[in-house]
Amino acid sequence: MNHTQTVGVVVGRFQSPYVHSGHQYLLEEVRRRCDQILIIVGVTGGVPDSHDPMDFKTRKLMIESRCPGAVIVSLNDHLSNEAWSSKLDDLIAENFPGFKAMLFGSRDSFLPCYKGKNCMEYIMPKADVPSATTLRAEVTMKPLNSSDFRAGIIYAGTRQGFPTSFQAVDIAIRHSIEDKVIVGRKAGESGWRFPGGFSDPADLSLESAAVREAREEAGDIEVGNVKYLASRRMEDFRYRKSDNKLMTALFSGTYIFGQVKAGDDLVEVRWQDFDGLIECMMTDHKCLGEIFLQSIQTNKSV
Asked: I need a surface site. Which of 80, 106, 113, 210 has the fewest CB within 10 A?
């Protein structure tokens, strides 16, 4: 009687500095039970971050060193479990046609998300196995004085995928009666600027980001009638030699009440007359002052 060969399938992100004992135990169990082993490495498709810092090639090399002979392929995240499971089944069929597949998982594995056609089996994890999250946190505690460590940082820093356009916001807060607008100054600078900064992942919109920045940098003030004016590519010195660049969205708003007081990275704020606004501003922020004044003239002529 012909024996139908089996392939054991393990799916994971393997986002740890080494194949830890939990992963190693799972892989050894699968190899013991099956003729072949297929390891599917999850890939987000996004920019590396603290949750998914390593690319697929780096993780593949790590796994190969601890599980030689295994077939290792990548699988991108999908919008739904159904679509992801269908692609997983396709990868199994492509790499091991005619094999009977068995999917293995352990604690916090992919098994509850799998909606495909293959059989699954849960393997009880070893006790006291560290999580990949804990191992990543330990790695970030302090730098190591080694060429390999520095080479890793260079590799990661230069393989971030497509160049990024960082999103910032600036807001011109106009006095409700007088022709004045709030400007601020950073330490070590002689020129002035509108309150502003980077948008935050917690911001629900660029408008809310602009209001947040107004309060952080210009005091506990209330700003109303917030309107988008324009966006501009900014020549920020921090990204002058970088592939990454900075884009800001300029908003205007009307001061309602509150104490105007410098905060965050501004050391001074003041009410600036419209006359003389452009002359007092930092060179790379003059374009924002011009946009604001043009919006005032446009509104007057309407």
From this structure: 80
Domain final residue pick, 100, 129, 158: 158
Structural domain of residue 279, as residue ranges?
A: 165-301
Strands 119-122 and 100-105: parallel
- Residue at 237 is within a domain: yes
| Distances from the Cα of 76 to the Cα of 56, 108, 195, 198, 217, angstroms | 10, 19, 40, 29, 41
- List, for residues 243-276, the tens digit of each pLDDT value: 889 999 999 999 999 999 999 889 999 999 999 9
- Give the length of the chain: 302
Tokens of 200: 């935050």
Q: If we measure between CA atoms, which residue out of 227, 204, 224 comes closest to residue 215? A: 224
User: Can you tell me which residue has the tokens 């986002």?
Assistant: 15
Q: What is the pLDDT of residues 21-39, one digit of tens each?
A: 889 999 999 999 999 999 9
- Report pLDDT digits (tens) over 73-114: 999 999 899 999 999 999 999 999 999 999 999 888 999 999
Is the domain of 152 the same as that of 255? no
> Which segments within the chain are labelled E, that is strand?
6-12, 36-43, 71-76, 100-105, 119-122, 165-174, 180-186, 196-198, 222-234, 245-257, 266-273
pTM for this entry: 0.74
> Judging by DSSP bridges, how do beta strands 165-174 and 100-105 pair with one another?
unpaired
Total domains in the chain come to 2
Strands 245-257 and 222-234: antiparallel
